[in-house]
Design goal:
By secondary structure, the protein is an alpha+beta fold. The protein has two domains: about 5-95, 2-Layer Sandwich (Alpha-Beta Plaits), CATH 3.30.70; about 110-235, Nuclear Transport Factor 2, Chain: A (Roll), CATH 3.10.450.50. The chain is about 35% helix and about 35% strand. The protein has seven helices and ten strands. The strands form two sheets. Strands 6-5-10-9-8-7 form a six-stranded mixed beta sheet. It has a four-stranded antiparallel beta sheet with strand order 2-3-1-4. Strand 2 (about 40-45) and strand 3 (about 55-60) form a beta hairpin. Helix 1 (about 20-35) packs antiparallel against helix 3 (about 75-85). The radius of gyration is 21 Å and the shape is elongated. The chain starts with 5 loop residues before the first strand and ends with a helix.
Length: about 240
């Protein structure tokens, strides 16, 4: 399966006199769409010179996320409303970013690989995350960590770790305080903090990440943190 991030730009023209109805319908898409797991950004814009022209600017993890979006009932409702408000067929551009992949650049140091890995976490750039890992990467979470397990393969990490946290936490961040370059391993020292979605309690827990690399790719991740304070925030 191809996991290519996509940018969608949709140009939408309202019938004269239907601008307000069109705007209301499109605004209703923003909040629910932004909670979809495959959505990176979803913004509505309006032409400053022509109030009947709207633009949806969207970024998605991949085509599967776009397809899932169009199956949502709130999307189907707006598509139905277009029968009355739309002046002409929607012009849609589906775009993919063109840039050198890590393998096309000069080889990165192991430390640079880990820095790029954290960037891919923050930006939900799952395509780059996959490129930076070996096919059989072992992702070993701390014993007792909520939802923790040992997972193999980048897709298992994306689904079981990164996307899973979106379901349980209003916010979850790992703050980096120091990188230690140990040759074939990189150690990252920092702390977790977050706010639980159900209890609304916050926590802060010191944490250390240890990455083992083989031929410039991450082969193993190990996590060390105080799990008790996390469980306390959940209860």
């Amino acid at each position: 399966m191809t996991h290519q991030p996509l940018t969608i730009i949709a140009y939408i023209k309202a019938k004269p006199g239907m601008e307000q109805q069109m705007q209301q319908d499109l605004l209703g898409l923003l909040a629910p769409t932004r909670t979809e797991s495959g959505c990176i950004t979803f913004d509505l814009l309006q032409d400053t010179q022509d109030s009947t022209t709207f633009v949806l600017y969207e970024n998605w993890n991949d085509q599967a996320a776009v397809d899932a979006h169009f199956q949502q009932p709130y999307v189907k409702q707006v598509l139905k409303a277009y029968e009355e408000t739309l002046a002409e067929p929607i012009a849609v551009m589906s775009l993919s970013k063109i840039e050198p992949s890590p393998s096309q650049n000069l080889p990165m140091s192991n430390l640079e690989v880990i820095e790029e890995l954290y960037r891919s976490f923050r930006e939900k750039d799952y395509a780059t995350f996959r490129q930076l890992c070996t096919p059989d990467i072992a992702w070993i979470q701390n014993e007792g960590f909520p939802g923790g397990a040992t997972r193999y393969g980048a897709d298992a990490v994306i689904e079981g770790v990164f996307k899973a946290f979106n379901q349980d936490w209003d916010s979850w961040q790992f703050h980096i305080e120091e990188y230690l370059d140990a040759g074939c391993s990189v150690i990252v020292i920092g702390f977790y903090e977050g706010i639980h979605r159900t209890t609304h309690q916050s926590f802060r827990s010191p944490a250390t990440h240890v990455y083992d690399l083989v031929n410039g790719k991450v082969a193993k991740f190990r996590q060390f943190t105080d799990t008790k304070v996390i469980w306390d925030a959940m209860s």
